[in-house]
Amino acid sequence: MKRLPHRKTHDHGLSRISKQQRNVLESIWGKFGTAMYRAAYLVLLHVQDTEDACQQTMLKLVKHTDELAKMTEDEQRRYVVIASRHTAVSIIRERHPELFSDEEVVELPAVNEPPDEAFAAIGAERIRIAMHQLSRKDYLLLQWKYFEHLENAEIAEFLHCVPESVRTMTGRARSRLKRVLKEDPWFDEYWKGN
Length: 194
Prior knowledge:
It contains ten helices and no strands. By secondary structure, the protein is mainly alpha-helical. The protein folds into two domains: 17-98, Rna Polymerase Sigma Factor, Chain: A, CATH 1.10.1740; 101-193, Orthogonal Bundle (Arc Repressor Mutant, subunit A). The longest helix has 26 residues, at 19-44.
């Protein structure tokens, strides 16, 4: 009888994690699993993709268990929820590249001011590229508000603040995004005319 060749199984490095790392990860999942799932689901809106995002996030967190163990509970929650959201965004970019084509145009309505034609005329991918030059907080605010269409109250829940603060922070983030876009040579002609 012929033996089948030995197949290597992929454990994603989990067999090499220490008991302490395993305990930290179990604690994180026990405390924040629901919040991680919710953050990923709000991006993906698909159960299986959300489960994949949570699993991938936990695998990524293996490398950061020492840092997580030193954080307060609030810091841990923020860290893992943001990690889960970023993983979800990566998954959606990977599985649905057509959503990020240059042809897509997204109108970013003003928060405290009249609609800005400059944002309305810019392709979504160019806006996303410019957003990556902003701080993480500004990036998330704009992503949640204009691409994921979350309400100020939902964003306020993630940031542990009041909805009025979200409106103010989003307006400031829009101003910073506009400054980044003004520096882009692609927009030189538009800005010269205005």
